[in-house]
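for the recovery benchmark. tokens below, seq after
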């Protein structure tokens, strides 16, 4: 049978809901949809799956509600370039009781990784991947600030990526998550020359630690240069290095850094220990 597009009005009628309810299902990613001209449509096969219980009412065999596939829903909205719909998914995740760490690490990151993989496999054009990343960055700027903890700061953490390292999105995610734990975070972004990185630390007050993110092997030499500049100019400030290109504690020591930022939780625990000692 040929799969056909169905208008949202027909979807609403089939589901026995108001049109705006059907529209919300699509914009929050609960029901896959796409635009044809200026109108939203749903494929009949997707509607059939939704009606069979793979949508809102999906439950496991023991009667518990299945975990919503938030990452897949966000991935679909980002691929479509649907910024408003992607924001709706963000908001739906938070309304479901999840925190910022869950949103970033278990929804946004998997969606972006999947999009990157599909681009590498030739399934998506490069503009789709770039557009998705830019939408993600804008959405983070809207949501992340809500979770910044108020009160007395624990100190300043400076984060960035070395020269040639263009993946600033991961740094921004980490910055928001550390900021939510009561730290002031100076996010220098990607492609930061070693000398400028060190200068930023020298000119900041109450710096507790520096974090250098490295996501690709090609950035390892620049990361080593950055760490050397930091240790030379600010020898008493601990330097953390983390990211997909860092293999562990031994690798970090080869680079001249003090600590491996293996994951968000371990990084925050270690920063808290430094703050208490300081």
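predicted aa per position
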């Amino acid at each position: 049978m040929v799969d056909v597009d169905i208008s949202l009005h027909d979807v609403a009628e089939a589901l026995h809901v108001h049109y705006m309810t059907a529209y919300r299902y699509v914009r929050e990613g609960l029901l896959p949809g796409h635009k044809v001209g200026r109108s939203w449509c749903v494929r009949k096969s997707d509607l059939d799956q939704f009606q069979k219980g793979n949508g809102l009412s999906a439950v496991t065999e023991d009667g518990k509600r299945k975990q919503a596939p938030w990452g897949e829903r966000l991935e679909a909205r980002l691929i479509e370039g649907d910024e408003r719909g992607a924001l709706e998914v963000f908001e739906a995740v938070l309304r479901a009781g999840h925190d910022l760490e869950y949103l970033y690490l278990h929804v946004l990151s998997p969606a972006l990784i999947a999009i990157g993989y599909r681009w590498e496999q030739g399934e998506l054009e490069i503009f789709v991947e770039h557009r998705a990343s830019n939408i993600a960055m804008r959405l983070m700027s809207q949501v992340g600030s809500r979770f910044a903890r108020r009160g007395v700061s624990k100190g300043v953490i400076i984060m960035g990526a070395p020269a040639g390292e263009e993946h600033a999105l991961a740094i921004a995610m980490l910055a928001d998550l550390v900021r939510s734990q009561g730290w002031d975070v100076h996010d220098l972004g990607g492609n930061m020359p070693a000398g400028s990185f060190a200068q930023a630390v020298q000119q900041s007050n109450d710096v507790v630690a520096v974090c250098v993110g490295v996501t690709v092997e090609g950035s390892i030499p620049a990361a080593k240069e950055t760490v050397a500049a930091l240790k030379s100019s600010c020898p008493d400030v601990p330097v953390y290095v983390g990211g997909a290109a860092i293999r562990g504690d031994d690798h970090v020591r080869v680079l001249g850094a003090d600590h491996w930022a293996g994951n968000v939780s371990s990084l925050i625990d270690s920063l808290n220990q430094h703050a208490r000692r300081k």
